[in-house]
């Protein structure tokens, strides 16, 4: 049922397979234990990967509220040419978690990410981060934010490395440091070999991974990724999702707009939009009692030959 409340649920990541890794350049370790997802990429001076990721099995319904480093949307609405394309949508995204924003094409995913990222101003409602506004009065994002734009927003006349380094140069990093970190970010998504190629010489999937690297490189408080895997094969999709998970693990709020159920499945929470409104979600059933763990996979046996 559409409504103005935000309803998200928490799901356990179901995949316990090792995450495919691009060629690492530095400290990189994999961990394939169930419930421990992610890798330690010893770069960029950021905090190390937290060794375990607590993903409870139980459903959770989030309410809207303030709180430390929460990204909150309060009844956000947005109009385009007099048409309401987002209608009273609320969300509450926590650091350390990945929130999938799903919905059919045109349902408002990009619009919602733009509003909570401060790229657009809502017609009504408010977005807050850490209890305060998401932008300065001049419209500059206040939390450090890594955007993966659907259209990438890369500069065609610069190389892949330069496009990524720009995100750091704009924040005052020295040229050498920015280049080093750009190469590391490109390596995280397996495109460091393309570092010196012009953007105009890259394929769609390569461009998309450069755009992801640019969002990763800043060690952002908030990562807003709009369809970050739409051009990728399954292996590279998993690499990108694993890197977004790493961002969450180091404490970022991560929002991923996606059409891909496999990507949504890897997230902890999901907010589903239908025609610019939040669709009421059904929470998954509670975990089985001890001793009944396999019941969920059992089907009633109907044998027409038996009474
Ligand atoms: N600049 C614009 N001009 C006109 N209409 C727009 C504009 N931006 C968004 N819209 C409309 O707003 C609605 C929501 O668009 P939005 O891009 O947020 O959807 P989406 O769920 O991200 O879609 P997709 O999955 O196709 O990227 C759509 O009906 C779209 O046509």
TrEMBL record:
Belongs to the ABC transporter superfamily. Keywords: ATP-binding, Nucleotide-binding. One of its GO terms (molecular function) is transmembrane transporter activity. Residues 1-23, 278-307 are annotated as: Disordered. Residues 71-300 form the ABC transporter domain. InterPro entries: AAA+_ATPase, ABC_transporter-like_ATP-bd, ABC_transporter-like_CS, ABC_transpr_LolD-like, P-loop_NTPase. One of its GO terms (cellular component) is plasma membrane. The keyword Phosphoprotein does not apply. This is ATP-binding cassette domain-containing protein. The lineage of its organism: Bacteria, Bacillati, Actinomycetota, Actinomycetes, Propionibacteriales. It comes from the Bacteria.
């Amino acid at each position: 049922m559409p409504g103005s409340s935000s309803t998200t649920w928490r799901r356990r990541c179901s995949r316990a397979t090792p995450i495919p890794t691009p060629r690492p350049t530095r400290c990189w370790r994999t961990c394939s234990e169930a419930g421990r997802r992610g890798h330690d990429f010893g770069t960029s001076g950021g905090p190390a990967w937290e060794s375990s990721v607590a993903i409870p099995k139980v459903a959770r319904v989030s309410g809207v509220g303030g709180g430390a480093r929460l990204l909150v949307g309060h009844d956000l609405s947005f109009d385009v040419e007099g048409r309401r394309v987002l209608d009273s949508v609320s969300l509450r995204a926590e650091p350390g978690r990945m929130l999938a924003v799903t919905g059919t094409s045109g349902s408002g995913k990009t619009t919602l990410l733009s509003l909570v990222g401060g790229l657009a101003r809502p017609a009504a409602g408010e977005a807050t981060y850490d209890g305060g506004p998401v932008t300065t009065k001049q419209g500059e994002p206040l939390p450090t934010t890594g955007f993966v734009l659907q259209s990438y927003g890369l500069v065609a006349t610069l190389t892949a490395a330069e496009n990524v380094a720009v995100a750091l140069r704009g924040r005052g990093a020295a040229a050498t440091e920015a280049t080093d970190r750009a190469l590391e970010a490109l390596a995280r998504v397996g495109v460091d070999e393309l570092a010196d190629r012009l953007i105009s010489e890259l394929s769609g999937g390569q461009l998309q991974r450069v755009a992801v690297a640019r969002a990763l490189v800043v060690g952002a408080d908030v990562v807003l990724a709009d369809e970050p895997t739409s051009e990728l094969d399954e292996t590279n999709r998993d690499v990108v999702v694993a890197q977004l998970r790493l961002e969450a693990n180091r404490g970022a709020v991560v929002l991923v707009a996606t059409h891909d159920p496999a990507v949504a499945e890897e997230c902890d929470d999901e907010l589903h939009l239908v025609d610019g409104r939040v669709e009421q979600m059904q929470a998954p059933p509670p975990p089985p009692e001890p001793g009944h763990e396999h019941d969920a996979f059992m089907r009633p046996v109907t044998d027409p030959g038996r009474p």
